[in-house]
């Protein structure tokens, strides 16, 4: 697998695996198959995995956590954040908009 050095100096595989469809959007996901796919990708040299808190919401990040826990030191997980996720009238989480403004990002950085 070819590797790429990002501007920050972080080195990741040239190919990454986008994981949205493993828990969100396309329907019919099977957790065991998704975990097997993620782990096979690592075996093949993939070190970059893409997710977002809104996929599910949160279920995709949980899935990646399960799949990659024993391999965490070998991979990089890129996640997107800043979505406003709130329960609707039925108590189901839903996205009400995106808040990726400068102040929200600044607050997030201060927590780290």
TrEMBL record:
PROSITE patterns assigned: PROKAR_LIPOPROTEIN (PS51257)
Pfam family, one: Aldo_ket_red
Sorted UniProt keywords: Oxidoreductase, Signal
Coiled coil: none
InterPro entries given in the database record: Aldo-Keto_reductase, NAD(P)_OxRdtase_dom_sf, NADP_OxRdtase_dom
Cellular component GO terms held in the UniProt record: cytoplasm
Any GO MF annotation of the entry: oxidoreductase activity
Top-level taxon in the UniProt lineage: Bacteria
Keyword GTP-binding: no
SUPFAM superfamilies linked to this entry: NAD(P)-linked oxidoreductase (SSF51430)
Uppermost EC category: oxidoreductase
Signal peptide: 1-25
EC number: 1.1.1.-
Domain NADP-dependent oxidoreductase: 15-91
Name recorded for this polypeptide: General stress protein 69
Lineage of producing organism: Bacteria, Pseudomonadati, Pseudomonadota, Alphaproteobacteria, Hyphomicrobiales
Name of the coding gene: yhdN_2
């Amino acid at each position: 697998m070819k590797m790429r050095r990002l501007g920050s100096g972080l080195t990741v595989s040239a190919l990454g695996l986008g994981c949205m469809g493993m828990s969100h959007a396309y329907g019919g996901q099977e957790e065991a198959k998704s975990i097997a796919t993620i782990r096979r990708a690592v075996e093949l040299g993939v070190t970059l995995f893409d997710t977002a808190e809104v996929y599910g919401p949160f279920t995709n990040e949980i899935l990646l956590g399960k799949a990659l826990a024993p391999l965490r030191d070998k991979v990089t997980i890129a996640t997107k954040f800043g979505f406003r996720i709130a329960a609707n009238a039925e108590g189901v989480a839903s996205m009400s908009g995106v808040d990726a403004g400068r102040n929200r990002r600044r607050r997030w950085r201060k927590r780290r």
